[in-house]
Amino acid sequence: MTGVRLSDFWERMDGVLGPAYAQSWAKDTVLAELGSRSVVQALADGEPTVDVWRAVVVHLRLPATHR
């Protein structure tokens, strides 16, 4: 995977955590994999969406099919 569009990123988040929880989790959960930032903070800081998604996959211990 070379990149993830932001809209695709949020679709993936909704698919994993559910649309009602994904935004809240992304705002409130700090990930060591993102340098102790939340998903929302990392995206706002300009972190590539593919890197943020990979951090989510690692943090949530999602199966390899999500990578």
What does this structure look like?
With 67 residues, the chain is mainly alpha-helical. The chain has one domain (6-66). Helix content is 55%, strand content 6%. It is built from four helices and two strands, in the order ααββαα. It has helices at residues 6-17, 22-28, 39-44, 49-60; strands at 30-31, 37-38.
Shape: globular
Give the low-confidence spans. Answer: none
Residues in β-strands, percent: 5-15%
Distance between the termini: 8 Å
Largest sheet: spatial strand order: 1-2
Whole-number tally of structural domains? 1
Helix percentage = 55-70%
Main beta-sheet annotation: 2 strands, antiparallel
Helix count from the secondary structure assignment: 4
**What is the N-to-C order of secondary-structure elements (H for helix, E for strand)?**
HHEEHH
Query: What is the residue-mean pLDDT, rounded to a whole number?
Result: 94
Give me the secondary-structure category: mainly alpha
What Rg is obtained from the alpha carbons, in whole angstroms? 11 Å
Please report the total strand number as a whole number: 2
Task: Give a quick set of tags describing it.
67 residues; mainly alpha; 2 strands; 55% helix
Summarize the entry for a quick read.
The chain is mainly α.
Task: Furnish the topology, listing elements before pairings.
Layout: H1 6-17, H2 22-28, E1 30-31, E2 37-38, H3 39-44, H4 49-60
Antiparallel strand pairs: 1-2
